[in-house]
């Protein structure tokens, strides 16, 4: 029976060295974190691996926008499955608006009166959301009507990405680098409200079946599939269920604060997905319990440092 | 400053009496639980209130199917916004299949080989999911093609509900009682996979914009809107965002194990929704921290007992 | 393979009937809650069972003081293992002070200036804590010095209980009914600070070895041992480890919001305790995920209703 | 109003640079993590600051033994307040025993038969616990009887530390470097059981009042006090309450997976402690939501890298 080893910190050590020491612990949090860093590094290195990330929770407004965009830019991510909120926040910033540092103890009635909407301790201005409406309408007008009558969200987001100017934009970078962004719940967001009001005056059909067809096709395009799950929700489920046709993903890491015992899918361990054919084997799987906005940048840095060796 | 009072249990007391004692505590868990029971009772009593429930997590397979169905049957619920999984599990049972008692420590590789798919400690047979495919196709064939070319999920689910025979079915009961079931992520489920494969051979377009239009319309049909949020995810967000046009909901309770500090919407307090215009005032709002599959039946019983007084 | 059954609510049903329906679900939260109600009912009924409860978290100040006291009064609890805080709050109320309804969003700097100390959304007055000091000194003075030189916490708390007048007091009721209260971390509380300052001027030794000896002796006094674990911490561990000498407890329920994956003992499943010899078999064990201040009163009511049948 | 900035990863960047980028985000998880790294770095640098760490949960067996020991060796930690379990595991390893890599899904009945005791996914052998008994007795025999009749846990642990040979031992290193280890619940552990059985045959009194006196004295010995809280429980409370006499600590970070809404002290925000006089101001306080076994090594590395600049 192997025994637990202990982490030895040296002041000049890289985060990669620390992650390797953690993997050697083999148990509890350090074992899981170290394994996640290694799986992520292997995934990044593997050019025969189609790499998906699922995004739920305030990753884009919460400081990770450039982290994700840079990984797309460097071809470490091929498919992004995201909530509508993360798309909304990317477009808001691409249009020049900023997210504001606030407080989780703020009086929401007062915030409402001041035109500020809250996500835990950050604020979005109602002003920027109104500006988003006009910009969305203008961008939609530029899409040929024939196309607008039957698009997947990934096609819509490519169109928007092509019209945005900000080099830090996830949508723009994905468009340029040929990565696909899927947003299965695009209407369930501020951007989505603007799509809906537009659709009442102009032809616009977002067809989720087109998304699913493209997503399933992508799972067949390379030898292997790897998935990075940040938060849970529909993005997590969508990317995994699309892989059932090919027999499941080959590798996956998830970072979540949701717990498994309630039975919800967000907190479910990746092993459970094996029984559904969404994951192939228990080998390259790991759940790291924690806040993805903290842990993913650290894991990504460790994985990038693996690419240099 | 009011002081905390203490719960006094008497052996013959009803759950309603206990909930009233809890509300009198005014703080911590008992205060929140007691307030939730009172808000729910008020909501049920108010015939001028449009009542929505959002369902995320394994409520239907996890023993609450009849609880929800009976509330629809008795006109205590007008709109249901749910994950695709809960719809899938309702249809599976309506077709005569059963969910199986299992173990959360099962070996998922072995379960896969035995044709069992796992949700924490309950199993679904692959056999039943295959049978679902045939039944889904048959039911879709019965829907006129002209209709199939542009439906909201609520229209599709009414059609399916009309074809199911099981009186305990949520879909059937909703159809009969005129309640609407919205499933913003219907493709993100086993039923959804069958819709997708069908759509590749036959005309079928599920248009989420139709859903959102109907959902928004419903928010205007009565003087007040009340929302019961069981779990988080897109169902929670969808029902709240649809209410922004009317200035927010009037009352809401949520039961969740998700925590707020990660910033995700599932665990966000209802007060935060005030800053987005999704909720009107902080008055009739409460978050109960806990497992909805445990707490909702207890709260529902307390609320029903209020209707008799 | 048994299948999941569904809960059927009837307006007039008792909480016991609902709990029985939940046990029949057999899976997820309802299965765990229903099983806990049944184990608790069996425990209460069994006069050959020594019944312990462990208390961590704000149970006494948070509205459950009378719930616990009444169970002691009715001989359903023989041993209480608790944090110092719960003892402190019992004595505060016994001296006529009240806990105040507050807010979790209060400004703690302002509260400090106003002489209010906060536990989530309830307050304690500094005034009452100062009054506690005088009362504690007075009560200690009444204990013979020879006794004071070597007491277990259970002996000290019997002495205090004998001097308090409040019939709702846990300490007084335990004294009268012969139940023992163990407080392994008694110094780690406001009452403990007063014990410490007293000890600097007067003879006072609280000897934890005496506590442990008495606790272990109690585990041998009846055929069976049952444990109710409310919250985690040292109270949970102390009561379980004391039972290793007799080969483990026979039945246990725990209610906790702590999660297992961090590896801490508070969130650890009861099954893990089998490997340590703290629990005998997996038969009569269940963990209910949730807030003990909400769930315990409900479970206790269901268990009491079982005694009448 | 300041705006949220985004993290920019560069492959060669140090964990310190990443932590600085996170602090600049200012909100959500990254803001909290970055602030914690900065507070920890400031604390380490400040020679006029008395530095305490509280340990709850499986830090020593879970791979962080050397991390903690090295910080003591380098004088970055002056006082350690810990559960009995962490002391037990340090002594076990110092005696040459190892912790074993296991599985959280193991059958605990079988483990029991095989003489293995489980902490989530790591095992301890019963053999090593029996060997601990003999070694403990032997070490106790070497302590002069007069001393044994009235010791604080910090004195006992200094004695044991002086007798252990392992340079990686926390107890030995603390003894050599003059750091104090307080264990307010020392009897509540396997080591504690051996102390208890010893005490039934030989004179041994562990007097918690001596511990508290020494702990309070330490809080006065330097201009400032800083506290690192890993996990919650009594170690967290003990170190904070001891600082009330001097008006509260000057700086504190805590890493925890426990949530605040249950009202328990383990998950309580540090701000709440201001209202109790345990913390001075809200300035240098931060709670990082997460698993301390993962996050503390990363934060410690970032803080150590700050010492070099």
Describe this structure in words.
Four copies of one chain form a homotetramer. With 309 residues, chain A is α/β, with parallel strands linked by helices. The first copy, chain A, contains 14 helices and nine strands. In chain A, the strands form two sheets. Chain A has a six-stranded parallel β-sheet, with helices on both faces. A three-stranded antiparallel β-sheet of chain A has the order 3-5-4. In chain A, α1 packs across α14 and α8 crosses α9.
How far is the N terminus from the C terminus of chain A?
31 Å
Q: Helix/strand/pairing class of chain A, anyone?
A: alpha/beta
- Taking all residues together, what is the mean pLDDT of chain A? 97
* Global morphology of chain A: globular
The Cα radius of gyration of chain A reads: 20 Å
Beta-strand residue fraction of chain A: 5-15%
Kindly report the oligomeric state of this protein. Answer: homotetramer
DSSP strand count of chain A: 9
Physical arrangement of strands within the biggest beta sheet of chain A: 6-2-1-7-8-9
Helix content range of chain A:
40-55%
Largest interface (CB within 8 Å) is between: A-B, 71 and 71 residues
Question: What string gives the helices and strands of chain A in order?
Answer: HHEHEHEHEEHHHHEHHEHEHEH
Largest sheet of chain A: 6 strands, parallel
User: Could you list the spans of chain A in which at least 5 consecutive residues all have pLDDT below 50?
Assistant: none
Total of DSSP H or I helical runs spanning 4+ residues of chain A:
14
């Amino acid at each position: 029976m192997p025994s637990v080893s202990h982490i030895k910190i040296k002041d000049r050590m890289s985060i990669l060295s620390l992650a390797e020491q953690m993997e050697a612990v083999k148990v509890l949090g350090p074992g899981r974190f170290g394994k996640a860093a290694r799986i992520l590094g292997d995934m990044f290195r593997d050019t025969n691996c189609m790499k998906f990330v699922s995004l739920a929770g305030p990753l884009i407004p919460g400081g990770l926008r450039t982290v994700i965009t840079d990984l797309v830019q460097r071809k470490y991510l091929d498919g992004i499955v995201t909530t509508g909120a993360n798309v909304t926040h990317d477009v808001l910033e691409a249009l020049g608006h900023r997210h504001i540092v606030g407080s989780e103890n703020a009086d929401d009635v007062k915030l409402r009166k001041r035109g500020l909407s809250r996500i835990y301790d950050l604020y979005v201005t109602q002003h920027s959301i109104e500006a988003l409406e006009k910009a969305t309408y203008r961008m939609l007008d530029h899409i040929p009507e024939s196309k607008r009558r039957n698009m997947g969200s990934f096609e819509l987001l490519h169109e928007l990405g092509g019209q945005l100017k900000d080099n830090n934009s996830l949508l723009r970078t994905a468009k340029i680098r040929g990565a696909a962004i899927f947003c299965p719940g695009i209407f369930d967001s501020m951007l989505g409200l603007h799509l809906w009001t537009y659709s009442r005056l102009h032809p616009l059909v977002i067809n989720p079946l087109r998304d699913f067809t493209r997503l399933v096709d992508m799972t067949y395009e390379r030898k292997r599939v790897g998935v990075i799950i940040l938060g849970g929700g529909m993005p997590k489920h969508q990317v995994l269920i699309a892989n059932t046709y090919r027999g499941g993903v080959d590798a996956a890491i998830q970072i979540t604060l949701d717990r498994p015992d309630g039975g919800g899918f967000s907190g479910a361990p990746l092993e459970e997905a094996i029984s559904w054919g969404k994951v192939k084997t228990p080998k390259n799987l790991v759940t790291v319990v924690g806040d993805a906005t903290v842990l993913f940048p650290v894991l990504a840095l460790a994985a990038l440092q693996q690419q240099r060796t």
